Predict the structure.
Amino acid sequence: MEIKCFHCGLDVPVGTNFKTKVMKQSQQFCCPGCLAVAESIVENGLEDYYHYRSEFAEKATDDNQDILDKLSVFDDDLILSEFVGKNNTTHDIQLTISGINCAACGWLIEKQLSKLQGIVQVAVNVSARRATVSWNSEVLQLSSILKHIENIGYHGKPFQPEEHEASYKQENQAFLKKLGLSGLMTMQVMMLNIGVFFDLFGHIDEQTKQYFNWVSLLLSTPVLLYSASGFYSGAIRAIKAKSVNMDVPVSIALSLTYLTSVMATFQNNGQTYFESLCMFVFLLLISRYLEHGARYKASQLSANMLEYMPTMANLVEGNQVQPVLAKSLKLQQSVLVKAGELVPVDGVIIDGQGQLDEAMLTGEFELISKSVGEPVYAGTVNQLGTLTIKVTSVLKHSVLNQINELQNQALANKPKIAGLADRFSQYFVAIVLFISAVTYLVWYQINPEEALWHMIAVLIATCPCALGLATPSALSCAVAHLNSKGILLKRGDALEQVSKVDWVAFDKTGTLTEGKFSLVACVNNTDRPDEYWLQIAACLEQYSEHPIAAAFEGIKRPYSVDGFSATIGKGVIGTINNLEYKLGSEVFMAQEIPDSMDSCNVFLKANNQVVCGFVLADKIRPSTSSALASFKDKTITLISGDAEQMVSTVAKKLDIANWLSKHSPEQKLAVIKDAQQLGHTVLMVGDGINDAPVLAQADVSVTLGVSSDLAKSSADIVLLDNSLDKIAVVFSIANRCKNKIKQNIGWAIGYNILVLPLAVSGILTPWMAVIGMSLSSLIVVINSIRLLK
């Protein structure tokens, strides 16, 4: 016996098992499409459809499966390696999202994706129409994420600068087409209705007036179906996700205006509002178009690193030079960089000299001379000379690309105030819908003819688009400003914390000082010559990454080292000629230091005896004094693992009253925790591997571009040009950004509170409401753009 599909009535193929409960009975379906439709009907409480239907529905398509099949290509390892960053089991990707109209779209995407099992973090940058997604690759596949985005009505694909730009131009053209159609139809319908309103053609009989109404209906329908389609698609996506957004009240207002006018036309009784409908859509689209352009300008400025991303390179193979894609370069290959060209990848100069412009990294426009053995970075410009470089990092792992990824991570971490604004806007829309309904009911009792218009004015005037733009627009512009100054922000919400900082801790070596040690003296307590102990120390330090190791460069290293190990923040251990040596701080020696070595800050221990001490000097950074001067209203503490005398000397030179010496990483961490327990908001500035724990513990952490990779991964802010005085810029922008966000939210809420009683009372007409809502959103965006100055 053949089984018919419960939804469409077609035969159910043998061997299929698509079932779900409908009206408390298990029903069979012929395909996943019919099953999905039935489940949706049941989920939304519409089961009576099946009870009252007079015939079967059309067969549903298998679009969902088709989409999944098409998107499965994004699970290919080659695609993943191209677009996806990996960190153990967590993957990160930037997606271009098509179809985003306003801040509510970003909110909807974030909330819906967050429901997927395996999602770690989702952040949508509405201005840039991009999303940053982190997920557990063992639980979730990229294709499933892209499919879910499709299911809620948007289109997502891996971000590529060229395609992203093309996507913007495509959306811009669509805006212009919709705007042009609505503008043209508005003029035509307005001309017809002016004739009716003012009787410009003399006495117009009812038949002619009815003819004008039908023509107006014909001209207005494309405006509603095509020009206003963006508002309806946004509203439908929100409702499908069981939410409300800014497009919902606008769509209701447009629908009511159109339906009322259609009824009046068909019944040949009452007033039509086709000219108002066209004008509403036209003015709303002008607002969206201007807002679209303003947000794009802000996003371009905040994504300014992309313009430096190289595309081509000159690959050197033997005596041949051939152009290749920069992203195809591999490690150890040689690349020729001529004068005026972008450096295509991170590398080391193996031939030639050049003058390089590294402003895109440091924010400083002075040319830097570089020669053989010195590093160069992708995106910098070789202004003078010809260089041959050896590739040390492929383009994907270049400093430039890492900076771009970190910048997007910064925008992904929103301040707390942004979350409050998002939640408030959702509740506010619901409140507006309620107030508009009450407005209609009250005015219907007072003046039925005006009730509809007053309700529409409420719906349009109080649409909280400006509130949704308040935080992301300000944050994007603040990040862009910091980037232009050579400051990399890794957490957007760090700006919120910076403005609260009242306790600042500095590391000494490599932070307040340049970390370029020189050997001043050797204090020897043995009969062996100083040269012997210097050679032992040089052999041990050759395996160390600590800045102290540089002080022993140039000294002969005649001995091999076995069993080398390093203890972070303390020193190194190694065996030479079957004798174990320890080189490091006083704490690392774990015994009393001879009085003769009081001036030393590095010690050498052999056979459980401190045999030698070294005096190493370090130069204070030129920017240190000006940086400290900007913290006069805050508590400053210098925390170092160096000897007391060395720390004391630096503290006195810099007029730092609070300083701590001989502190291990654990002790530094304890100091930070103690300050936090006392209620302080702590800023930590450090650069070394041993500073990573305290950088991670501090409320806000700053490191330098020359710092260790571990320090940079633990810090919230990276000063790419190593100038400590840039910290003052961070504080300034943080305070300005905080003020702009407050101003934007204050304006958005204040505007809505102001216009709501005006709209309810009938003083504010619908066309005034459209203009007011548009100007409100534009004011927020323009106010945020001022952060770029």
In short: The radius of gyration is 34 Å. Confidence is low (pLDDT under 50) at residues 60-64, 301-307. Residues 161-198 form the longest helix (38 residues). Residues 170-294 form one domain.
